[in-house]
Amino acid sequence: MPLQRTEQRGMDSLKTLRLSKPCLREAENQQTIEVTNTGKSDPLRRFNRRGMSIPGTEQRQNENIVLDVWYTDSDGDRISPADLKVGDSFVITLRVDNRMSKKIENIALTFPIPTCWEISNDRIALDSSHGSDSFAYQDIRDDVVYTYFDLPRNDSVTYKLYATVAYKGDYFIPAIHTQAMYDNSIRAVYPGLKVSF
Q: Where are the beta strands (DSSP E) in 99-155?
């Protein structure tokens, strides 16, 4: 949702600028910035908005890099995460393609883990990353898996995570993000999904 802009002008110069944006779906939750010019000249104004989308509103995005995600059962057949049941084990495959004619360095792949899943940690079960390409560093936490790597031009990497549906209920599988850490023009988003188990 775009910022809502209210401004008051006097004598050809901007005196007060107010920017408001809902930070959650409820309209009463607002973030507001107010700037008042007490000088005589019109100030230089530039506002940038960055951050994560509201869960469920993400759009698929592939800018100079492509992120694909799919899920398979223990037989290797593709499945939908919405069809899983409590106790089911499955594989999450994340593939990142470099469509540029240059090497991309310092890529971060962020896989937020839904609260209903348990991820197998390859630091404990040494064979759990079977089928994954190499990476510079991987940090597996309770709520997210961060993977850092470089990607040669016109090349791709594939990472596999092994998971089990652990809890019954209604959940949201968060959006998955990948981006070059020092170049905002290289990024991709795979939207989230609501599921019930």
A: 104-112, 117-119, 137-140, 144-151
pLDDT at 128: 45
Contact (CB, 8 A) for 34 and 24: no
C-alpha 108/C-alpha 63 separation (Å) is 14
pLDDT at res. 55 = 73
**In this structure, how many other beta carbons lie within 10 angstroms of the beta carbon of residue 104?**
21
SS3 150: strand
Q: CA-CA distance, 13 to 45, in Å (whole number)?
A: 12
- Euclidean distance between CA atoms 131 and 26, whole angstroms: 43
Buried b (16+ CB within 10 A) or exposed e, 69-96: eebeeeeeeeeebeebeeebebbbbbeb
What type of residue is 28? Answer: E
d(CA 33, CA 51): 16
Q: What is the distance, to the nearest Å, from the Cα of residue 154 to the centroid of all Cα atoms in its chain?
A: 23
Whole-prediction pTM value? 0.71
Find, among 71, 75, 94, the residue nearest to 84 by Cα: 71
Regions in the chain scoring below 70 on pLDDT: 1-31, 43-53, 122-131
pLDDT at 123 (0 to 100)? 55
Phi, psi dihedral angles at 82 (to 5 degrees): -70, -20
